[in-house]
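2024-03-11 09:14:02 DEBUG pipeline.ingest accepted 1 chain
2024-03-11 09:14:02 DEBUG pipeline.ingest length=295
2024-03-11 09:14:03 DEBUG pipeline.predict start
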Amino acid sequence: MELRHLRYFVAVAERGGFTAAAEHLHTAQPSLSRQIRDLEAYVGTALFERSSRHVELTKAGHVFLDEARLTLAQAGRSVERARQAALDHSGRLTLGFVFGVEAEQLMRVMSTLHGELRHMQLILHTQSSPMLITELLERQIDVAFIRPSSHTQGLNVRTLRSEKLIAAVPADHALAKQTTIRLTQLAAEPMIGVPREQAPVLYDAIQEYADRYGVALQPVYHSETLMMALSLITSVGGVCLLPEHSALIFPKGVVAVPLVEETPLLELALAWHPENRSSALAAFINAFLGKEPQS
């Protein structure tokens, strides 16, 4: 049995007949029928029920279809990984940033790429942390700055720092003049929330914080990115709870004010797939973590 037998079988199953499958595969129908008969002989059972008008999967055929699709998908991934490995000599690295972190970490990343790494081809990608984790697990990117969660199981994760929550308020707001803010003071303010599907770690930290001190925070606006949140703060006068390091890129119209109550800590980490054998990845990880200060 060869991969072409599986491709032919899947084509017939998905297109509901030999004629349509033959046209899709650009092959002759008699040849396709012969290949399927050879496959059934190899498996030892009928995979299709044939009639003059219809071709339907048998019970065994349904099971075989699921496995065939998995095998073809795995074969495709193997080819892609081999091609990616062939690019290692060029020093290609795909690096992901969780929203809002690229501005503060990019300079560090670029300062890492010196000496033997100065010719590395760097591809930058900004996305939500959940999406970055999925892309790392599926080997679509090499390494990423993420917010660790239970979904990072299976990845190498190195925590870079832990940070508190701060209140981001308009510079002309009365709260901006205070040295600290109590959580209860935010209850009456137009809050800017974050969707859980985009930033689950930040969302859960804010919920835990509010629940711990019995304060009901009702978001009036929702922002999918840090830039959108900062824009809402300056344009509509909203208030937002954000990781404290995000203040490094606040515009002049936004002020970060510490919170009185102890807040949950948010981690920022560098993550990569343990089976990624890219020499470019290994060189970057060693150089970056070797110069990363302890937090």
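2024-03-11 09:14:41 DEBUG pipeline.report The chain has a mean pLDDT of 87.
2024-03-11 09:14:41 DEBUG pipeline.predict end
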